[in-house]
Specification:
Layout: H1 10-31, H2 36-107
């Protein structure tokens, strides 16, 4: 027994999309209120605007990335300094403990 899905499978969906896109494109060409030249000029202008916006957004994203790296580097440097201070204090405490141990050992 063959199964008929009525064209609702993946190939049917793709075919429906393509037919709809072609119908939309044909309607747009037939009903366009401007000449082809005007339409091309407008599309070119829109394309340039989109490219400019894309460039601007790209530059802003790059700057935000550099700022984030700078912030992270500053944070790491601050934490490294604090860690070094703690390490030095611990080393001094251990050395003081050793000294006290040696002094007590010499007394006995």
């Amino acid at each position: 027994m063959a199964h008929d899905d009525g064209g609702s499978g993946p190939s049917g969906v793709i075919l429906s999309f393509l037919v709809g896109a072609l119908a939309g494109a044909a309607a747009a060409v037939l009903l366009a209120p401007r000449s082809g030249r005007e339409t091309r000029e407008i599309l070119g202008e829109k394309w340039r605007d989109a490219a400019d916006r894309s460039r601007t957004l790209s530059e802003q994203a790059a700057q935000k990335g550099r700022d984030a790296v700078d912030d992270a580097s500053g944070y790491v440097d601050r934490k490294r300094g604090a860690l070094e201070k703690r390490r030095d204090r611990l080393a001094a405490a251990v050395e003081a403990g050793k000294q006290v141990y040696r002094e007590e050992k010499e007394k006995s």
